[in-house]
Amino acid sequence: MNKLDMVNCNPVNIKYGKRINAFIVLGIMICFLFISGCSKSNSNSDTESVMTMNDQNEVNIEYLYSEYQVECKGIKLHLDRMVKENCNPDKQILLVHGVTYSSHYFDINYEDYSLVRRLAKEGYAVWRLDIAGFGRSEKVADGFMPDSDYAAEEINAVVEFIVNESKTDKIDVLGYSWGTVTTSRFAIKHPEHLNRLVLYAPILSGVGEAEISEPFHINSWEHAAEDFQKTSDGEFDLTVIDPVVIEMFCSSCWHYDGESSPNGGRRDICVNKSTKLIDLLKISVPTLLIYGDNDPYLNYDLADKALDQLPEGSETVVIHGASHVAYLEKPFYHEFQNRIVDFLK
Fold first, then answer.
1. pLDDT higher for 281 or 58?
2. pLDDT > 80? residue 75
3. What pLDDT score does 86 carry?
């Protein structure tokens, strides 16, 4: 989830104190789009297309990347899967995105930032879902339709598909930002195929009242970069965020998500801060809450008490200094990845 302002902006270049040579940035972006499998699948519902992808950080590692279409309520959903080549994983994990931008950002293939590739190296088949209207899933006429409860049912349909496809009984699920609302509601209503749940940067309660009157959010490069930490003079804090990561993240948002995204989830969370959005007491599987202590969307009063409300085997991890995008922050992304891997083991 990014800043909740509704300002209409045209795409602009991201500015920061340390300028990168434009040709280097362009080359990085082109390479990124190529290796990330940006071409859309022509496959039919519940079928796959497969390609081999290299790792930017380790040249001797390759991955098998598959794209699927899963139909739910008449809408074709984009689902993809990545596994380490020559690996036959018996562990499955589904990653679910937040409210503005789709699942592409879990695989920022620069150095070893990619959560997808880290989990694949750990022996997982890593699945990513785009909720209806987001990213590469089929567009929707009404941007308010894919709200939190609607998305929870799509997650359930995809989990059922993964269980059947992988011939396993239970999988792990990770939700990020608004994705913690949707995955927790899925977990409460459909726990039968859920092993462990990770709630990253959990939206435990409303983020503040705001009138969301338009069904679609107007996206921009400026908006995509809003959550990166800044210095007191308003520049990006380059001790925390690598400028190449900023460029790759924003270009990926613009490529996959385009000019607008559905606003159903945003309307759900833009409510009074006292309104609870996740009922932790009803979650029945071991759950990890992981978040930074510099996250503007987090209700820390609720987060501090969360472990008492979760089932046995649950954990809470606070990454000191990290923001809402710890998974992309130089000082924190290794700890973020390691803590998730340790919990899932």
1. 281
2. yes
3. 86
> What count of residues does the chain have?
345
Tell me the C-alpha distance between 97 and 2, whole Å.
12
The radius of gyration of the chain from alpha carbons, rounded to an integer in Å, stands at 19
Closest of 45, 129, 34, 50 to residue 83, by C-alpha: 50
Q: What integer pLDDT is reported at residue 120 of this predicted model?
A: 96
pTM: 0.86
Tell me phi and psi for residue 251, to 5 degrees. Answer: -65, -35
Please give the single-letter amino acid code of residue 1. M
Lowest mean pLDDT among 78-92, 127-141, 190-204, 261-275: 78-92
Over the chain, what is the mean pLDDT? 88
Torsion-angle region of 67 (φ positive above 0: left; ψ -120 to 50: alpha; else: beta)? beta
pLDDT at 50: 58
Q: How far is CA 181 from the centre of its chain?
A: 12
Q: How would you write the chain as a 3-class SS string?
A: CCCCCCCCCCCCCCCCCCCCCHHHHHHHHHHHHHHCCCCCCCCCECCEEEEEEECCCCCCCEEEEEEEEEEECCEEEEEEEEEECCCCCCEEEEEECCCCCCHHHHHCCCCCCCHHHHHHHCCEEEEEEECCCCCCCCCCCCCCCCCHHHHHHHHHHHHHHHHHHHCCCCEEEEEECHHHHHHHHHHHHCHHHEEEEEEECCCCECCCCCCCCCCEEECCHHHHCCCCCECCCCCECCCCCCHHHHHHHHHHHHHHHCCEEECHHHHHHCCCCCCECCCHHHCCCCEEEEEECCCCCCCHHHHHHHHHHCCCCCEEEEECCCCCCHHHCCCCHHHHHHHHHHHHC
Name which of 35-44, 48-57, 194-203, 249-258 the model is least confident about. 35-44
Evaluate if residue 53 carries a pLDDT over 90. no
Domains of the chain by start residue, with CATH: 22-344 (3.40.50.1820)
